[in-house]
Amino acid sequence: DNEFEAGALGSGAFHVRDDVDNVDANVLNSNDFEQAVFVDETTDGSQKVFAGLEVAVDEAAPEATVTTSTGSFEGGVTVDTDLTIRGPNAGVAGPGRDATDLSDEAVIESPDSDAIQVSNNADLTIDGLTFDGNQRFLSVEDGWGDITIRNSVFTNAQSKTGGHFWFKGDA
Fold this sequence. Notes:
Radius of gyration: 15 Å
Shape: globular
Largest sheet: 7 strands, mixed
Oligomer: single chain
Strand content: 25-35%
Distance between the termini: 45 Å
Strand order of the largest sheet: 2-5-4-6-9-12-15
Number of helices: 2
Helix content: under 10%
């Protein structure tokens, strides 16, 4: 059992490998991370663990799955390729979770910006995340593909002109 602290690592990647020189999403469950994001396929074809959501999304290959540990993650994330973003509560219905105790959640926080912005007609699936205190939970301004949000919690929205979900342009 290892312990990793994102503050000491900055916003970049740290590479975790086991004895056979590979890693999978189970690394998030078998180690203690302050925050970590596993990408099952990066643009260089490898699997990596990152210390922040934006850098993980930026490095994800098209159609990759990005999996977060529990913890707080800075919003303002731009998704411009087809992705799936899964939190630790993927598959667990949002109404069954306690929005007053976020300790077992992956919480996207961005009081001064949109949590996730979609561009480039990207398809996006979000499963098992919590959005807390964001200007907008999701914004799309230049077209989008299929957007699916399931098993997620939305709380403490900061009302920005246009509402909590912003879709502008042609789908």
